[in-house]
């Protein structure tokens, strides 16, 4: 029996904006995650590589419930800080931000203090990502 509860029903009809932040060419993970979230019922816009201000503007225009960032270049802390500040500048501070990539476990607490709702390191299954993001919507509806 699975140890992980399945919260994916909470994804249906939600809107996600996904993007690569930082100057890295590792796009496989974010493409797989974007497709998995779409298959699970979310409406997903994948922005490709983008600057913090571009991500925030797109989140506003798309009415995103979730901003999903991908970073495998090691500078995830500064990149996430920039996106969260840009979202707050557009009054989108309530938008959930998650990040995946090569993120050392020790950085998760720091990222959460910045306002990141969940971090997903290399090797996590797509099913776990979808369920965990669904759990975020269950916990903080709206
Ligand atoms: C394949 C690979 C490459 C490919 C990339 C192919 C591509 N287009 O994607 C190539 C050969 C191009 C490459 C290049 C380089 N790479 Co490389 N690469 C890898 C490798 C082996 C696997 C990455 C991968 O595709 N994994 C499979 C995907 C599915 O996993 P993932 O991306 O981690 O995504 C998962 C999670 O992270 C998470 N996730 C990711 N994004 C998102 C987004 C959201 C919204 C969510 C929710 C979750 C999520 O979910 C995914 C599913 O589990 C990793 C090592 C590793 N094991 O991670 C090194 C690695 C990422 N590379 C590394 C390095 C250093 C480089 C180079 C700088 C090497 C060099 N000197 O040239 C260059 C960078 C070039 C550049 N301009 O950026 C380092 C990064 C170190 C760091 N961050 O500090 C790593 C970690 C290797 C290492 N141990 O040193 N690389």
Q: What can you tell me about this protein's structure?
A:
- Strands 2-1-3-4-5 form a five-stranded parallel β-sheet, sandwiched between helices.
- The mean pLDDT is 93.
- The protein is α/β, with parallel strands linked by helices and 142 residues long.
- It is 41% helix and 20% strand.
- The chain is built from five helices and five strands; from the N terminus they run E-H-E-H-E-H-E-H-E-H.
- The protein has one domain (8-139): Rossmann fold.
- Cobalamin binds next to helix 1, strand 3, strand 4, strand 5 and helix 5.
Structure in a nutshell:
By secondary structure, this protein is of the alpha/beta class. It is 41% helix and 20% strand.
Which structural category fits the helices and strands? alpha/beta
Number of helices: 5
- How many runs of DSSP E, i.e. beta strands? 5
Shape: globular
Q: CATH topology, what is it called? A: Rossmann fold
CATH superfamily, called what? Cobalamin-binding domain
> What is the correct CATH architecture?
3-Layer(aba) Sandwich
Query: Residue-averaged pLDDT, rounded?
Result: 93
What's the SSE pattern? Answer: EHEHEHEHEH
User: In whole angstroms, how far apart are the ends?
Assistant: 31 Å
Number of domains: 1
As a percent range, the share of strand residues is 15-25%
Low-confidence stretches: none
Bound molecules: cobalamin
User: Largest sheet, described in full?
Assistant: 5 strands, parallel
What is the radius of gyration computed over CA atoms, rounded to a whole number of angstroms?
14 Å
Q: Helicity, in percent?
A: 40-55%
The CATH class name reads: Alpha Beta
Strand order of the largest sheet: 2-1-3-4-5
